[in-house]
Amino acid sequence: MASITIRNLSKTYGGVADAPAVRDVNIAVPDGTFLTLLGPSGCGKTTTLRLIAGYITPDSGEIRVGERQVSSPAAVVPPEQRGMGMVFQNYAIWPHKTVFENVAFGLKLRRDANVQKKVAQSLEQVGLSGYENRFPNELSGGQQQRVALARSLVVEPEILLLDEPLSNLDAKLREHMRSELKDLQRRTGITFVYVTHDQAEALALSDQIVVMHRGEVQQVGTPFEVYERPANRLVADFMGLMNSFQGQIEPEGNGLARLQLPDGTRFDVVAPPGLTAPQGAELVVRPENITLSAQAVDALGLKGVVTAQTFLGNLMELTVKLSFGPEVRVQSHPLTKFNVGDAVGLQLNLASASVFLKA
Asked: How would you classify the pairing of strands 243-253 and 279-285?
């Protein structure tokens, strides 16, 4: 079984104990899962990947593949003995070797007797049959990325680790390669652990997403869960655009609460964890979860004026200044008929909103 279990994993560089690269990380990766480590630069995602790969020794905790312990402070199984493949951000393919020679390298180190057959099968998997004799400078960026994939797959790993492999590609090619990577993972059944800072990539590719910040895991969940049900404000802010409404909240019982905005507008919402008495709170709503109406006041009382609009092709984004001051962003159908200066009412989809208590 190519499941991965990470328990209480920590790593500090340079003796900076108060700023560990990874702090008390716990993750379970089921066999055959596409798991993405997601977060901004410096969040610990690449360090976690390198710990899984065996390039770094942890300060505490352990990593297991199936029932086999592969990393602990006392012992680290070498990378080449872990049954893992690795695809690096810069692909790390040799410019002086042909496609065949690049892909065959790992097999030759193992003195495999079926080099020709396995290289051919691996190149077919990534759509590069017929490219065996080309050199990297004769390939596009996407083709070079596939060579790196083929080189990792040819040794038949149980787990494939990928460190931002699409970051050097243009936007259109990145989108194409996302589909190819997901299809490849489904066809092979290999456990993928993927590192990226790109939210769209993570949402499109993953079965599970691990959101990290300053070395700590903030949330583990499906793409839907981390986007629609963020565990905290950090996750909500990182996972996409959000509108923030400041107010006061008080419990009403039966798991409900009442949130009041500065203009007096009140909403009945699901009570956030830890709410026991009236206190400050923040209501977070995605731009696509706000509906505009031509009436200046809707049933919930929110009103504003359109101050800007931007046509983005597949949607229209409008900025609306609320009657009590703040501006919100609203995303709707590109044929939405509102103009700058129009008075509008705003309807919030509270079922898709999040409420976070103020410290």
From this structure: antiparallel
Cβ proximity of 20 and 12 under 8 Å: yes
Amino acid at 190: I
* Whole-Å CA distances, 240 to 98, 182, 284, 311, 330: 41, 22, 11, 18, 13
Residues 285, 247: contact at Cβ < 8 Å? no
Residues in the chain: 359
CB 153 within 8 A of CB 121: no
Nearest to 154 by CA among 192, 126, 191, 179: 126
Per-run averaged pLDDT (10 residues), the chain, 359 residues:
92 76 96 96 94 96 96 94 87 90 84 85 88 92 86 88 85 82 88 94 95 96 96 94 95 93 91 93 95 68 91 93 92 90 92 92
User: What does the DSSP 8-state code read for residue 81?
Assistant: G
Helices 141-153 and 115-125 cross at an angle (nearest 10°) of 130
The SS3 assignment for 32 reads: coil
Rg (CA), the chain: 25
